[in-house]
């Protein structure tokens, strides 16, 4: 009954679906709360896989600060503004999205679920949420594209030492219908990750997350080995070619020449880097500290967002990730000027717990929460939202209305 009422928003529809199922004695298949979902994921995953997913770098201060930065900001809702019809849609690089949401690139999903990126791709396609596929995926660029049909997808590039290999990845992504390239800048060295070190666990060393490399003709030619017959030597070449810490801004021009796809740079936190990215032709930047997995002690992603937005202005798109867990987080990042946000660990908890359906549930719940949070803030669309909707308080309860 509720499904067919065109006046009901996605948020209200989702609530009623859940409440009506409850009347028939059916509880939600998966936890609604992301924290509870993470606890369930911990129960079903091997300790080293859960540690890899949930963990961060060093003392995990930056990982925690990503969440604290959201808690420090509070929404000041406006009243009597006719929010009966709401539009949560946004436009990002020419794509119209139903909500300001994309899936962050997350590698090695085979450690979480046997269907890995294919399950995520199907869920993303069903919900119309663009997926950003990691270079370090467990399924290839082509396999994931085939699972998505015409659904929107971007490719994340770990910028390898070899320009020829980079060009090969970009050619494959273009041919497989990926519409933009997100170049991750913050992972040119693997950080000190204490949980993984304690488990003596690096998935790549066990043959996970290397599908795009080992299937690549340039990689195989440069490695000079058949990865199936000589996995040890193939891994050695992978470790050598994965990144190049000597890269500088001067290298970016060559990368741009290697593709006709728009390029976004991920891992930008300083306004000067954001300015430079745009000056050098980037179509966008992703404000991100890699979910606190790289430089422990780095600024919280949300704290870096306003400076980057001010530096970029309307010259390029500013995307955001780091700590998005619910609708209010999306609203706060959007109020600070993000064009859209990337969802990270939560969809992987859904994958671990419930495969494709687990990811679908996470996305449907978050989209519903976004719709309701937007309305309850007194906005009918994200165009009505701005910094004036937020207050910041160091000591929580003393937030003052501007
Ligand atoms: C297990 C794991 C693997 C990741 N792999 C990649 C990757 O391959 N490429 C990339 O650019 N970022 C990667 N990231 C970082 C995410 O894209 C994103 O920046 C981060 O998850 C956001 O933080 P959050 O999950 O706390 O919201 C990874 C994150 C996790 C948790
Ligand atoms: C050699 C470092 C690979 C890291 C790739 C996956 C990733 O980004 C992560 O955070 O983990």
UniProtKB/TrEMBL annotation:
UniProt EC number: 1.13.12.4
State its cofactor: FMN
Q: Where does FMN bind?
A: 105-107, 134, 156, 158, 184, 266, 288, 321-325, 344-345
Record-linked PROSITE patterns: FMN_HYDROXY_ACID_DH_1, FMN_HYDROXY_ACID_DH_2
Could you list this entry's UniProt keywords, alphabetically sorted. Answer: Flavoprotein, FMN, Monooxygenase, Oxidoreductase
- Please list the residue ranges annotated as the FMN hydroxy acid dehydrogenase domain: 26-395
Residues annotated for glyoxylate binding in this entry: 52, 193, 290, 293
Active-site residues annotated for this sequence: 290
* PANTHER family xrefs: FMN-DEPENDENT ALPHA-HYDROXY ACID DEHYDROGENASE PB1A11.03, S -2-HYDROXY-ACID OXIDASE-RELATED
What family classification does the UniProt entry report for this protein?
Answer: Belongs to the FMN-dependent alpha-hydroxy acid dehydrogenase family.
Give the protein name, as stated in the record.
Answer: Lactate 2-monooxygenase
Source organism (scientific name): Tautonia plasticadhaerens
């Amino acid at each position: 009954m509720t499904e067919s009422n065109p006046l009901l928003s996605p948020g209200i529809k989702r609530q009623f679906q859940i409440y009506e199922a409850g009347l028939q004695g059916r509880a939600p298949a998966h936890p609604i709360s992301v924290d509870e979902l993470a606890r369930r994921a911990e129960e079903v995953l091997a300790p080293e896989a859960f540690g890899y997913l949930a963990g961060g770098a060093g003392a995990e201060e930056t990982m925690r600060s990503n969440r604290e930065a959201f808690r420090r900001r509070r929404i000041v809702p406006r009243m009597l503004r006719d929010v009966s019809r709401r539009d949560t849609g946004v436009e990002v690089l020419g794509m119209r999205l139903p909500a300001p949401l994309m899936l962050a690139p997350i590698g090695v999903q085979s450690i979480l679920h046997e269907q890995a990126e294919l399950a995520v791709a199907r869920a993303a396609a069903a919900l119309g949420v663009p997926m950003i596929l990691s270079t370090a995926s467990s399924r290839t660029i082509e396999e994931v594209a085939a699972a998505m049909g015409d659904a929107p997808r971007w490719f994340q590039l770990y910028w390898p030492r070899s320009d020829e290999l980079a060009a090969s990845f970009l050619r494959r992504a273009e041919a497989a219908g990926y519409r933009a390239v997100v170049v991750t800048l913050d992972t040119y060295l693997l950080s000190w990750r204490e949980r993984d070190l304690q488990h003596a666990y690096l998935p790549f060393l066990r043959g996970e997350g290397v599908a795009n490399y080992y299937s690549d003709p340039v990689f195989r030619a440069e490695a000079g080995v058949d990865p199936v017959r000589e996995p040890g030597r193939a891994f050695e070449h992978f470790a050598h070619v994965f990144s190049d810490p000597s890269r500088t801004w001067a290298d970016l021009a060559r990368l741009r020449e290697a593709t006709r796809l728009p390029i976004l740079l991920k891992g930008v936190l300083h306004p000067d880097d954001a300015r430079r990215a745009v000056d050098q032709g980037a179509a966008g930047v992703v404000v991100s500290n890699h979910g606190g997995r790289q430089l422990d002690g780095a600024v919280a992603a949300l704290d870096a967002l306003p400076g980057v937005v001010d530096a970029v202005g309307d010259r390029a798109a500013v995307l955001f990730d780091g700590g998005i867990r619910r609708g209010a987080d999306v609203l706060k990042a959007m109020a600070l000027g993000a064009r859209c946000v990337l969802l990270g660990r939560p969809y992987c908890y859904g994958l671990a717990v419930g495969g494709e359906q687990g990811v679908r549930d996470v996305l449907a719940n978050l989209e519903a929460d976004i719709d309701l949070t937007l309305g309850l803030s007194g906005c009918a669309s994200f165009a009505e939202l701005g910094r004036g909707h937020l207050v910041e308080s160091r000591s929580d309860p003393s937030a003052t209305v501007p």
